Amino acid sequence: MDLGTRNAGFQEDKSEEPTAQITKFDSEEKSDAMSLKLDTVEEYNQIKPYAGMPKEVLLLYSSQARYKVPREILFWLTVACTLALVALTITVIALSPRCLSWWQMSPVYQIYPRSFKDSDGDGVGDLKGILEQLDHFDYLNIKAVWISPFYRSPMKDFGYDVEDFRDIDPLFGTMQDFEELLAEMHKRDLKLIMDFIPNHTSDKHRWFNLSRSGDPQYRDYYVWTDCNASNPKPNNWVSIFGNSSWSYDKVRGQCYYHQFLKEQPDLNLRNPHVRKEISDLIHFWLEKGVDGFRMDAVKHIFEAEHLRDEPQVDPDKPPEEITTEWDLHHDYTTTQVGLHDLLREWRAEMDIYSREPGRYRFLVTESYDYHEIEKTMMYYSTPLVKEGDFPFNFYLLDLPQNTSGLWAKHLIDLWMSNMPNGQWANWVVGNHDRLRIGTSAGPSFIRTINMMLLSLPGTVTTYYGEEIGMQNINITQDQVQDPAGRYNVSLSRDPQRSPMQWSDDMNAGFNPKTNLTWLPIHPDYKTVNVEAQMNDASSVLAQYRYLNILRESEMPLHRGWFCHVHADARVFSYLRELDGLSRAFLVVLNFDNEPAVTDLSSIMELPSQVNVLVSTVHTNKGKSMPKSQIQTEAGEGLLIQFSSNMKFNHNHKEQCYISEKACYLEAMGILYKC
Ligand code: GLC
Ligand code: MG
């Protein structure tokens, strides 16, 4: 009987008799075939396997040891491999140190938009101007830019008095210019950090107009209290810009509080509607795609509701002489309960936008806490609660007070020893509010300070012009633009806000179109400018660029240990090393006006002879010297690369800091958690 159609591909095995005739079943024939009682197993044993064989045949084969055993082996092998892969993945994840984020890998460059580049010839910098100059950041290897405010503003405090947080001031351009700038920056892998001002608005803001006219919805948007129209001082609180922080408003017949100018009324952030407005604004700009915020003046966000007088620093001073922020202890106007909760709420809003890879939104807070570093450190996140990525570290602004190795060490130590474990350091030597370090420390220290910043652990903030060593301009009383200098020129912030020096052309290339600049150009622009310094290997710019590129490519510099090894009246010296990596760096900085010879022979990890990789005195590059006599000229900084298998931090823990420990496996070239 024929049991099926013949399989054309089936080759009969001539060597085995009798040859089976079974091939494929046709469906109609299936039932016949099923009903067919197979006499013996022998019969099927004669059949060779082939594609499409019937179930019975298949079962028969699959139960044979020669098929069953390999099948089981393969099955268990697959299970074992899968488990091994899962285990390997878990191990790799567990052993991998966290990748550094964009705000840790690059300096944050601060642009003061009035002063960066003027594209339309009105003498004031603008967004299109910034767009024109983006190559500058590629050149410097800078990946993050913070732009001071460019919202619509009456410019009483040059943009820190915001009339409309959702609009761009026409002086700077349009929303379209902003969007173009952001798109182009992102195309170039550049991040944009917005300045955000939650403490106050301009007195021209719609909310303030509605609040002063008593609109029920906006009544409590600001801090109002009853006061005497002829002596509008409900208490002794003073403004950062001097005199009472209260002004009388005729329309409402009450006083409003302003921590800064009277044209900058403080918002009442105890009002949930105001908080909602602020968080809507945060969403507005995050939706636009900005990469982070620099939160302005955060310690001033809340004031005590009881409005009691603040204690005087000198209790004997007559109350009418209490006019500056230095006259009072700010127990009731700064760092009030609720501040950190609010910042954490904003942080949580930001984190919603941080989830996509590469889209981390960064938060830096501005708070001058002077001698209260523990207050500053409160702005850092904790392992359980996220807040700022870092608060600005303003302590190095004091460096020029006493340029010595010991002082530099003290200021750096101050931050490193107070910073919570696992957090990320940062360094600021200038901004639009502080005199330029190039002037206050002196031109001979510019390169050395830049070398220090770019070889310390943490993120550097570079205020525009620091990369070429710009200096303060001299301002006379009649040239004053800054409201802080209106009554006392020495308080003016104009000296550090002069136009960026791009070239030795007209207006230093800042405004190449007309002879207008909102502040004078520094007279040194013929030599201190980007173009000239690009062509000079020994320039401040060339050194900045070299060190910034080196910092990114060298793991000891961006994520290694920082260990101070020497400090005296002249010299400060430290090591940067990574466990497991033999390549390490020694930095020797002379902060004095005299040359120095430093004996580092007690540092066993250093080879007896060292070679200079970079010197701030260009001609000393490549110099070799014994570690017992490291020579530095007055104000000179040296970066020395060396190789050692011993690690200084192993035996000197008290001199060393690290943000997040990682080790290097030189044999395989991988970094792992250790
Ligand atoms: C911040 C700014 C400063 C401004 C003040 C008021 O401190 O840096 O320039 O004047 O806030 O907004
Ligand atoms: Mg302009």
Q: Describe the strand arrangement of the main beta sheet, using strand numbers.
A: 11-10-9-5-2-1-13-12
Helical content stands at: 25-40%
**What is the residue-averaged pLDDT?**
93
Provide the list of bound ligands, each named once. Answer: alpha-D-glucopyranose, magnesium ion
Q: Which shape, going by the Cα principal axes?
A: globular
Low-confidence stretches: 1-5, 7-28
Question: How widely separated are the two ends?
Answer: 75 Å
Derived structural class: alpha/beta
E-strand count = 24
Structure, explained:
The structure is a single chain. With 674 residues, the chain is an alpha/beta fold. It is built from 20 helices and 24 strands. The strands form 6 sheets. The protein has an 8-stranded parallel sheet. Strands 19-18-21-16-15-14-22 form a 7-stranded antiparallel sheet. It has a 3-stranded antiparallel sheet with strand order 6-8-7, with no helix packed on it. It starts with 26 loop residues before the first helix and ends with a strand. InterPro entries: GH, GH13_cat_dom, Glyco_hydro_b, O16G_dom_2.
For the structure shown, list the relevant keywords:
seven-stranded antiparallel beta sheet, binds alpha-D-glucopyranose, eight-stranded parallel beta sheet, 674 residues
How are the secondary structure elements laid out?
Layout: H1 27-35, H2 41-45, H3 55-62, H4 65-95, H5 102-105, E1 108-111, H6 113-116, H7 127-132, H8 135-140, E2 144-147, E3 151-152, E4 164-168, H9 175-187, E5 191-196, H10 206-212, E6 224-225, E7 246-249, E8 254-257, H11 272-288, E9 292-295, H12 339-351, E10 362-365, H13 373-377, E11 390-391, H14 405-418, E12 426-428, H15 437-440, H16 446-455, E13 459-463, H17 530-534, H18 540-553, H19 555-559, E14 561-567, E15 571-577, E16 583-590, E17 596-598, E18 609-615, E19 624-626, E20 630-632, E21 637-643, H20 648-651, E22 656-657, E23 663-665, E24 670-672
Helix pairs in contact: 16-18
Magnesium ion binds at residues 118, 120, 122, 124, 126.
